[in-house]
Amino acid sequence: METLIKNILKHVRLSPEEIAIFKNFWTEKTLEKGEFLLRNGETCRYDSYIISGVLKAFCINSDNGNEEILFLAIDDWWATDISSFSKQKASIYNIQAVEKTNLLQISHQNFQKMLQEIPSLERYFRIILEGYLGTLEKRIVWNHMYKAEQKYYDFLETYPDIVSRVPQYLIASYLGVSAEFISRIRKKNKSS
């Protein structure tokens, strides 16, 4: 809980009373490696903040049956199907633990109550959504403008903590390249 509160306090001020109220809305959850936080077709009932661990969000490609990674999330990040959570409609993707993951969760109903009781949190969640939107925009640019090798190097620079914790094949899927391609780049860098 303290990590999330520190994250929030970087962006907005909360009184000690608001912090006490805030804590009452959240529950802890642990996912074992391979366990699902959300499955395609389910409604995302909780917004989830990662205390520790790694999650992957993915769809299954209907043509080849492969996982297509939508996002990877680690400690001190959020992992939610925003559309499903905000509209309380079925999700179109899966979120699964890559390693044992500890979460803080808030239900949709409690999220709405929390924002009513602590209005300054509206600003915090707007800032989080703006950051997420910026990441999505950057990914669109990557996919349309960058060559595969350039995408990989930018990913390494932008997300060094993910690179050290996530299997290479998941990074490859996220970037839209093959795991063999990443292996070749890594070999080339070692020999340079």
Molecular structure report:
With 192 residues, the chain is an alpha+beta fold. It has a domain at 2-119: Sandwich (Jelly Rolls). The protein has nine helices and seven strands; from the N terminus they run H-H-E-E-E-E-E-H-E-E-H-H-H-H-H-H. A four-stranded antiparallel β-sheet has the order 2-6-4-5. The longest helix has 26 residues, at 120-145. The termini are far apart. The model has no long low-confidence stretch (mean pLDDT 93).
List keywords for this structure.
192 residues, alpha+beta, Jelly Rolls
Computed over alpha carbons, the radius of gyration is 18 Å
Low-confidence stretches: none
What count of helical segments does DSSP give?
9
Question: By helix and strand content, what is the structural category?
Answer: alpha+beta
Topology order in helix (H) and strand (E) letters: HHEEEEEHEEHHHHHH
CATH superfamily of the domain at 2-119: Jelly Rolls
Strand segment tally: 7
- Strand ordering within the main sheet: 2-6-4-5
Outline, from the CA principal axes? Answer: globular
Report how far apart the termini are.
Answer: 44 Å
Largest beta-sheet details: 4 strands, antiparallel
Shape-level CATH architecture of the domain at 2-119 = Sandwich
CATH level 1 name of the domain at 2-119 = Mainly Beta
Strand content: 15-25%
Helix content: 40-55%
- CATH topology type of the domain at 2-119: Jelly Rolls
Q: What is the averaged pLDDT score?
A: 93
